[in-house]
Amino acid sequence: MLEVKNLTFKVNENGIERSIVKNISFHVDDGEMLVITGPNGGGKSTLAKVLMGIEEADEGRIILDGEDITDFDINHRANAGIGFAFQQPPRFKGMTVNRLLSLAAGRKLKESECCGLLSRVGLCAQEYVRREVDATLSGGEMKRLEIATVLAKPHKLCIFDEPEAGIDLWSFSMLIQEFEKIHKKKAESLILISHQERIIQMADRIMVIENGTIGAVGPRDEILPTLLKEEGECSCMNRQAV
Amino acid sequence: MGELLDKITEKILQKIDGEGFEQKGAFNLRHNGIALCHGDSEHIKIRKKEDKQGIDIFIDGQTRGEQVHIPVVVDSSGMHDVVYNDFYIAEGADVTIVAGCGIHNSGCNESRHDGIHSFHVGKGANVRYEEKHYGEGEGTGGKVLNPVTKIYLEEDAVFTLDTAQIKGVDSTIRETDVAMGSNSRLYVVEKLMTHDLQTAESNMEVQMNGEGSSAQIVSRSVAKGRSRQVFHPKAVGNARCHAHVQCDSIIMDHAEVSSIPEINAKHLDAAIIHEAAIGRINDEQLVKLRTLGMTEEEAEGVIIDNFLN
Prior knowledge:
The complex is a heterodimer.
Chain A lengths: L1 E12 L2 E13 L4 E5 L6 H9 L6 E6 L2 E2 L5 H7 L1 E4 L6 E5 H9 L5 H10 L4 H4 L3 E2 L5 H13 L5 E5 L7 H17 L3 E5 L3 H4 L4 E6 L2 E7 H11 L12
Parallel strand pairs in A: 3-10, 3-11, 6-9, 9-10
Antiparallel strand pairs in A: 1-2, 1-4, 4-5, 7-8, 11-12
Chain B lengths: L6 H10 L9 E6 L2 E6 L4 E5 L5 E6 L4 E6 L2 E3 L5 E10 L4 E5 L2 E4 L6 E11 L4 E11 L6 E3 L2 E6 L4 E10 L3 E10 L4 E10 L4 E10 L4 E11 L4 E10 L3 E11 L4 E4 L2 E4 L4 E10 L3 H8 L5 H12 L2
Helix pairs in contact in B: 2-3
């Protein structure tokens, strides 16, 4: 279980302090899927980075399975059981897909194991396993590979930052099925940051982040109708193809 | 039974001969300026030069997928070893040549090896040449390696040059010259790591003289500490040809890297491209690997290892 208490993250812009995440508290139960949505620039991705330790919280506590991980750095949080898929993953010149997935798994994967992971994210495994993770891969391919790095080993909590971005419709449907499978097992808690209605519809609970604060949080059936109703006014949700 | 090798020599051979040095087939191990042991195979004959230090290696046209190993080990401090090795590869041969030099210097005098190699590659022959350079030893004496490589490719010949300076070489000046015949192909992968106060200079000139010749040159380097590197690849198109030169360097600490590409077209249908990039390790790469559970130091090591892979 993840507990977030009074989390605040500030930036200093030209001597002026500005809060990006403002005194946020929430929790994610074991096996629960929490979808975080809200307008662009509202603080969703920053919140995710603070949870992973990529950005350092100014105030508040983060507790994972009863352990206070607020002062843990990125790798300690990873080793404590948090997986993170970036919205825009980096490329690695000279590193093969096979090698990256092995690093993600924490052990040398057999080619067949890599192929299995790649298939789960809709990549034709034989074409990719020996390729380099460099500029020859498209944005969509990189994104699916990024998700595969998180699927490479079990976590207590997986955070996916806009997993749908840049992915074609066919692959998106496969990803939805994959998230559904993970969710069904209830072995890992999931935080998905998304604007996609199909992803939001999978959530156990939805949290809307606006201007660095929680605009709304609650069960899907409670929050989703409000989001759909507001869609015409100021949409934070995308019902179109990704 | 082969020559017994001491532990230092065995260790260095493990570093510089990735295929695994064995005293069988065609081989020649040069140790502190003398040939310690050598052997021929049915298709590959090695002959000692009469007029100067070095060997002539004759690879006949029946050679198929065979390897020849010619490593050099220098572990005598103060040794200045100069060797001339000439390879004659007959038409149609298919061979892998594993060279490389390692210096162990436990003294205060400079140890140096200058390997001057020439390759005469016959029509349609396919040659893979692997060369690793490595230095070690607790002494204060310098470890210097200055290889000179001259490659002459006849029609339809294919040459793959895979060189790596692993670590520990205080100073190197690499000179590589290639003359290419029609429809010949050249693949070069040069990997270089410098650290502390080391210096490295690599000058390469590829003359594409034959119609339809093509060259692909990839240079990747990492400069750490206060080391300095200079790259000067030059591709000259004298006929209808194609070349792609790519130089990428990672710079760290207080190092300095210069990349001075030169492309020169002397024919209307010569297509030559050059790309060069120098930069520090990308922070996003470090963060990504740390989200996989690595420390910053481990992540840095992985990025460098793969970059130079």
